[in-house]
Amino acid sequence: MNRSQLREILDILHEKVGVEFIHYHKDAVINAITKECVNDDVDDYIEQLKINDNLVNRLASKILVGVTRFFRNPQFFETLKQHIPHKGFLRFWVVGCATGEEAYSLAIILEELGCNYKIIATDVSMDRVVQAHVGLYGNGIVSDISKERLERFFIRTSRGYQVKGLRHNITFKTHELFEDDAIEDIDVILCRNVLVYFDHFNYDYLYDKFYSSLNDEGLLCVGQIEQVKSSLFEKVDECIYRKI
Ligand SMILES: C[S@@+](CC[C@H](N)C(=O)[O-])C[C@H]1O[C@@H](n2cnc3c(N)ncnc32)[C@H](O)[C@@H]1O
């Protein structure tokens, strides 16, 4: 695939999905395109993308990796408990919430701690946001959630487990990290396993955005393989940084 073909595909994606994939690792984007372009004819694939929105959405969803699970990196949630600010009411922003498992995991620990809170959970993918809002998960979640938590926070249905009693404190909505304004008045941001997909040159722009979103001494939490390298934040624990 040559540069102009790649540029044309990125333009189609931007126009139809609203995401500027230039921010993502180039190799990952090319890899996804190569897998989707089954007959190796890139010009033909571009023509198909122009007329077939399903193909465009498939490609976008392949680049926007949505892998997630309840209590991903369980140690993180234990560590976070020790750093949750002491305030009467707390506001959380879960960035790149995918299908909702992370936001519900957070809500579970906040319920257990007896906190008053609001979680705003956002993702660029409308399909994932809708799934997150429905909160219905396959039986496989039993390997990530204790029996006690399943009984307290989920209802068993014929199609799997559906969250109960958590959704009233969570708003799921679409939000594009680069294009849309920061969500304001936030005490803790979880942006885990999202930064890793972006090219490093975009990080400062995002740190500025998170900085403006956070209240004084607010926390920015990232994934296990991610780091915040910015003079705007200091590390307070594994995966947890504080606004300076
Ligand atoms: C690998 S999932 C991580 C889910 C969850 N945070 C976790 O750690 O399990 C990454 C999510 O980030 C979302 N995402 C990627 N780029 C984004 C952007 N520019 N704006 C908002 N969300 C984005 C993707 O749609 C995907 O659902």
Automatic annotation (TrEMBL):
InterPro entries recorded: Bact_Chemotaxis_MeTrfase, CheR_C, CheR_MeTrfase, SAM-dependent_MTases_sf
Pfam families, A to Z: CheR
MF annotations from Gene Ontology: S-adenosylmethionine-dependent methyltransferase activity
PROSITE patterns with a match to the protein in the record: CHER
Domain of life: Bacteria
Domain CheR-type methyltransferase: 1-228
Protein name: CheR-type methyltransferase domain-containing protein
